[in-house]
Design brief:
This protein is mainly β. It has 1 helix and 9 strands; from the N terminus they run H-E-E-E-E-E-E-E-E-E. It has a single domain, classed as Porin.
């Protein structure tokens, strides 16, 4: 399971970094951290079989990507662990965002976006352990704080092909270093 997840994530990272090297100027690539509040609706198994549980907790991650004036490509690796609802997951996400417009506020650039994402995740509970693909949509905005730093606020909604996981909703705050 973890081997499959590692292979998929490594492949995503290598393909994105190779594409990012071609035709990008300085300041169009980024690396960053994200933290958010996630809610997962899934079947944890339980003693008597079906036990549909919704768990909410913090999700942490790292991100790397490339962007231009109109588009952004993002790879994020996230971890979620909720001891109260006995659920955790690790996921690798590949996202594509389209910037709707750019507004300037006192030398800060505000850019709302819409996007899609997909990836691979490993979901675990006491009696469940499964891997699978997921997909979804996202909306948010970026705010350039300085020439090298921007802040990203997003909401992601994900569905998957796994038997036990119904959906994941995630509010995320990311801080990116542009290089």
């Amino acid at each position: 399971m973890r081997t499959k997840l590692s292979i998929v994530l490594l492949s995503m990272a290598l393909s994105s970094s190779l594409m990012a090297q071609e035709g990008l100027d300085e300041g169009e690539r980024f690396i960053g951290l994200e933290v958010g509040a996630s809610t997962i609706q899934a079947n944890t198994g339980g003693i008597f079989g079906e036990n549909d549980v919704e768990g909410t907790n913090a999700e942490f991650g790292v991100r790397i990507g490339a962007q231009n004036e109109d588009w952004r490509t993002l790879i994020a690796l996230n971890y979620f662990d909720n001891k109260d609802s006995d659920q955790n997951y690790e996921r690798g996400l590949l996202g594509f965002d389209y910037y709707l417009l750019t507004s300037e506020f006192n030398s800060a650039s505000f850019k709302p976006y819409l996007g899609v994402h997909g990836g691979y995740m490993n979901y675990e509970s006491t009696l469940k352990d499964e891997d699978g693909f997921f997909y979804g949509g996202q909306a948010g905005f970026t705010l350039d704080v300085t020439k090298e730093i921007d802040v990203d606020v997003a909401y992601r909604y994900s569905l998957g092909d796994m038997d036990e996981v119904d959906h994941i909703g995630n509010f995320a705050l990311g801080v990116n270093y542009l290089y």
